[in-house]
Amino acid sequence: TENYGGLILMSHMLPLFPPYSIQFADQKQEFNKRPSKIGRRSLSRSISQSSTDSYSSAASYTDSSDDETSPRDKQQKNSKGNGDFCIKNIKQADFGRREIEIAEQEMPALMALRKRAQGEKPLAGAKVVGCTHITAQTAVLMETLSALGAQCRWAACNIYSTQNEVAAALAEGGFSVFAWKGESEDDFWWCIDRCVNVEGWQPNMILDDGGDLTHWIYKKYPNMFKKIKGIVEESVTGVHRLYQLSKAGKLCVPAMNVNDSVTKQKFDNLYCCRESILDGLKRTTDVMFGGKQVVVCGYGEVGKGCCAALKAMGSIVYVTEIDPICALQACMDGFRLVKLSEVIRQVDIVITCTGNKNVVVRDHLDRMKNSCIVCNMGHSNTEIDVASLRTPELTWERVRSQVDHVIWPDGKRVVLLAEGRLLNLSCSTVPTFVLSITATTQALALIELYNAPEGRYKQDVYLLPKKMDEYVASLHLLTFDAHLTELTDEQAKYLGLNKNGPFKPNYYRYSLKSALRFSLPRFYC
C-alpha cells in the first residue's frame, strides 16, 4: 500500500493515479496508426463475428434463415395456391404477420380511417400499383387500401429496405408483392415490371416513392396513362421528377405532391430522421457520438432532424447548404456553416441529405481521415459517388450487413454504409407512429384523386389541401390524450376563419423553404 494525498491505495490501484504510470518499452503502440493488412483481416473477422447483436430481430431473422437462391428462380405459392408474387421465403409469413400486428398498434390514424371508411369503400374499383419501402408500416397501408376497396400490386423502391418476413405475410394474404432485401439493379427493375406488366390487369392509380415506377411506365408502357387517374408521390426526388415532366409538358395525369404536405415535411422528414439517424449509425458501427465531428450536407427537414439528434448526443456538428434561408436557420440553431472541402479532412462522420447528386465525390473521399463514416439519409443513392470507389486500386471489405470498408493503397479505410443508399430504412428501422402520419396522408391523397370529378385536377402537380393535413394531424392527437382549444364565434369572426378549419390558407407552408418554392416568381427560384 501507499499513502497518496491522504488516500490509502492498494498497489493494484496505483496506475490509476499520477504520477504513476505503466510503460511497456518494448510494446509502445500508436493508437492512431493504421492497422497492418493482417491486423485488418483479423479485425474484420472479429467485427463480423461479434456484430449479430447489433441487428434488429427482423434483420437477424431474415439474414439467418434465407438461402442464396434468387427468388426469381423459385416457384412459391401461398396456402391458397396463389403464386402471383416473388419474395424471398413464403415460410416467413407468420413472423411477418406479427410484425404487422405490432405496427398496427402505433398507426392509430390509418386504423381509424380503415374503420370509418371501409363501409363506404371509397377506393372500390381502384387498381393501385405501388413502389415504396416494403415494411410492416407499408403493409398496414396496403391492407387499409384493400379494406377501402382497392386492388394492389407492389414493388420496393429500395433494394435494401424490404423486410422479407413482411413481404411474405403480404403474399400469404393475397397481395401481389415483388420484392426482397438485397435485390440487384436488374432485379429491381424486373420487380417493377412484374407489377405493371400483367395480363388482364391494368393500374388506374400510382403510389410512388422516388419516381422510379412512374419513370418505368412512361418509358415502357406510356399507353397505360390513358386509364390512370393520378399519381401520388412521396419523396423529394420523385416530386422533382414530376415537376420536370410538368414543366416539359409531358405530365399527362394529375399528380399529388405528398412530400411537401405539412404532415410529411414536419413529421416524417423531421421527427423520423431525428430518431432513426442515431439508430442506423449505432446498429452498423457501434459508434460513440460524444465529441465526434460530423458534417451534415443539407439543412432541410431531414438535415434539421439529423443535426438536432447528433447535437443532443454531444457531437460537434457542421452544416453545408446552398439555400441562404436554410443556411441562416442552421446558423441561428447554433451550427457552423461550412463548405464540405473545408472540413472533410477532420470530420469523423459525413451524412448527406440533399436529394441532389454528387454531393460527396471521389476527391472528398480521397481526403477523408482514416475510419471516417460516410452515409446517406436522402432517398436516392446519387448523393455519394459510390461508382468512383469501384476501381482496381481500392479494396472493398464487407464487415457487416450493409457495412463496407473501402481501403486505400496506404491502408486508409472509409466506412461506407448501405452502399450510399438510404441509411435508416436500409440498416435499421423508423418510428412507426411517424409513418402512420405519412401513410394516412398517402391514403387520403389516393382517395381524393380517385374520386375527384372530371376537371377538378388538370395535368399538373398539386399539394394536398390544408384541410386534409389538419384532419390527419387531428386523428393522431387522440394518442396523446390531447385537447384542442376551440375558437369562439367571436374569435373565428375576428380571424376570418371557420371554427372547424382550415386554420391556415393553402399557400401557407410551415416550412419557409417550401413556401418560397411555390409562391415566388420563377426568376427568383
Automatic annotation (TrEMBL):
Cofactor note: Binds 1 NAD(+) per subunit.
Cofactor(s) needed: NAD(+)
Keywords from the named record: NAD, One-carbon metabolism
Positions that bind NAD(+): G300, E301, V302, G303, K304, G305, E321, N424
The protein's name: Adenosylhomocysteinase like 2
Protein source organism: Nothobranchius furzeri
CDD domains (UniProt xref): SAHH
Location of the region described as Disordered in the Swiss-Prot/TrEMBL record: 31-85
One Pfam match: AdoHcyase_NAD
Domain spans labelled S-adenosyl-L-homocysteine hydrolase NAD binding: 269-430
Biased composition (Basic residues): 34-43
Domain of life: Eukaryota
UniProt cross-references to InterPro entries, sorted A to Z: Adenosylhomocyst_ase-like_sf, Adenosylhomocysteinase-like, Ado_hCys_hydrolase_NAD-bd, NAD(P)-bd_dom_sf, S-Ado-L-homoCys_hydrolase_CS
GO terms (BP aspect): one-carbon metabolic process; S-adenosylmethionine cycle
Keyword NAD: yes
GO cellular component: cytosol
Residue numbers binding substrate: T135, D209, E234, K264, D268
Entry's family note: Belongs to the adenosylhomocysteinase family.
SUPFAM superfamilies: Formate/glycerate dehydrogenase catalytic domain-like, NAD(P)-binding Rossmann-fold domains
Biased composition (Low complexity): 44-63
